[in-house]
Structures are given as C-alpha cells and as structure tokens.
Specification:
It is a single chain. With 308 residues, the chain is an alpha/beta fold. It is 26% helix and 18% strand.
Length: 308
C-alpha cells in the first residue's frame, strides 16, 4: 500500500460510497462491496473522494427548541487553567490560538488517532502529534494531504478517532448538516470535536454558509454533539477580517489595520455609550455580534446509538 499512510490508518479506511472495506495495490484501490475504484494523485495521496453521486437521506425534526432552557453563554474563549497538554514552548500554527490549544485533549493511548478535517498543508500536524496522537490529514484538494476526501462522505469506519480538529472549514461545506453527522459517525464516544467557522468574514474560497452563533450551535446539535462552547473571537473582528481579506487583500497588515482603526475606535465608543442606555449593549454582545469567526468545542456522548 501507499507509504504515506500507516498500517493503523489503513485499518480504519473505508469506501466513502458504501462504507465497506478497500483492497488494492500502490496503483489503485477497489471497494470490496460496490467495486468503486480509487487511485493516487501525483503527489502520492490516496484519492478517496466520491467517484459517483451518493444519496444521503436526512430528516429534520421541526418544532423543537434550539437552546437549552437554562440558556447558553456565547462568551469569548478563555485559556484553560489546567490544560491536558502543555503547549507553552510550542509553535502556534496559523489560525490557532493559545486559548484553543489549551483545550486540546491528550491522547489516551499510543495508538490514538485524530483527524484534521480540511487539513490543507497539514500545518497542525506537529501540535497534534505533540499531544500524543497519530495524525490523519484529510482535505478535498491539497497537494500535501495524505488522504483526499469529502467531508460529506468521510472515507473512514465508524468510531475511528478520539479527536477531530476542523479549522476554518465548516463555511466551505455545501451541506453542513451532513458533514456534522459524518464527523459524529467517525468520532469515538467521549471523543472531542474542536473547530472554527467563519461568521462576518468576506466571501472566500467558495464559502457557502458563514455561521452565526446560533447557526453553529444548530449545525452541531443536528449532528448529535453535546455542545460545550461556542465562542466569538475578540481579536478577529468583522473590521479586521474585512480589512485583511476583503477591503485590502494582500496589503501588508501594517497598512491595512491603520485604515480601519478610526472606525474601530468609534465602534467601541458607540457601544460603550449604548451600554449606559441599554443593559443589552454589553461588551460580550458587541464581540458576539461583530466577530469574524466562532470557535466551537463539542463532544460525542459516551452512550450513543449510531443509526448511519
């Protein structure tokens, strides 16, 4: 088989179309059930993207409440005081923060697998391996990923991973409810799902659905997850996101940020004045309503009954 994929990973790979096992050689791989054929890219990645359309049946239950009766706090993410893994001397990859990394789990065993869903150039590999995990990077279109696949039809067996990381991916998913159920399916009971999703960022990279805090909660809840945190970024505001990605793309940050600084100052002053008039105009509400992205932390319940 392909040397870019370890034997442990081969054990959990499955046909994305029907879920059956695969067999093959260094040239091609065939499903033992539906006989779908999969090959390798020039970079050596195994291409497990769907080779034919797949029908996915999905039922929505209408008339239910979204948030629990006790409510749900959408506060900015705080650094965990007692993290499972000490990343203090580690390089922080792009799109991650010390706060997010402080919530990373530690691998339970030497054979624990984690999935970097939408891994891109696999920039998160070092920190995930530092946490003790065997890293599996999947992307739909990347020359550096070891596996090419579709988040709507993950090419893995049920309950394969202890941890799933998905950074700035959910907004690029055409059918987010399906992708959340797929993430839930391949995660072990008690497994943790950490990720970020765009909110008030500009359109980019064929993004489909930029999620509000309620949209993020809804997508995760529909997937079956127990939601622990959904947190707006207080450093990646709509003004900064628009300046860097939309208004002044490719302009050095030392020039683009000063362009929005007067608006940013007036924005904060206006909300501060508003807080004198209305109790609803809190600093947390301001950050939540004007953030560029949300971070989410969710778990798969310990006792589950997978129906797919």
């Amino acid at each position: 088989m392909n040397g870019r994929i370890s034997d442990d990973v081969w054990k959990i790979i499955a046909c994305p179309h029907c879920g059956a096992s695969l067999h093959g050689s260094n040239q091609n791989v065939t499903c033992t059930s539906c006989q779908s054929h999969y090959g390798y890219t020039k970079s050596g990645a195994i291409d497990l993207r769907l080779q034919q359309p797949k029908k996915y049946q999905y039922d929505f239950l209408l008339g239910t409440s979204l948030l629990p009766k006790s409510g749900f706090d959408f506060h900015p993410l705080k650094e965990e005081s007692n993290p499972h893994v000490d990343f203090s001397k580690q390089y922080v990859p792009h799109h991650l923060s010390r706060e997010i990394m402080s919530h990373f789990p530690k691998a339970k065993t030497d054979n624990s697998l984690m999935l970097d869903l939408g891994c891109g150039n696999m920039v998160h590999r070092n920190v995930c391996e530092y946490a003790g995990f065997k890293y599996v990077g999947l992307d739909y279109d990347s020359n550096e990923a070891s596996i090419l696949g579709d988040a709507h039809a993950l090419p893995f067996k049920d309950r394969s991973f202890e941890f799933i990381l998905s950074v700035a991916v959910l907004e690029h998913i055409r059918f987010p409810f399906v992708a959340m159920q797929e993430a839930y399916r391949v995660l072990e009971p008690n497994g943790i799902f950490i990720g970020t999703v765009a909110f008030l960022e500009p359109f980019h990279g064929d993004s489909f659905y930029h999620h509000t805090h309620l949209g993020t909660y809804n997508s995760l809840q529909e997937g079956g997850f127990r939601i622990e945190k959904i947190c707006p970024s207080d450093r990646w505001s709509v003004l900064i996101a628009q300046a860097r990605m939309g208004l002044f793309p490719k302009m050095p940050h030392m020039f683009s940020i000063p362009c929005i600084m007067p608006i940013q100052i007036m924005h904060k002053i206006w909300w501060r004045l508003g807080s004198v008039i209305s109790k609803k105009a809190t600093e947390e509400t301001r950050i939540r309503n004007t953030t560029g992205a949300f971070t989410f932390i969710a778990h798969k319940p310990a006792s589950t009954q997978d129906n797919w």
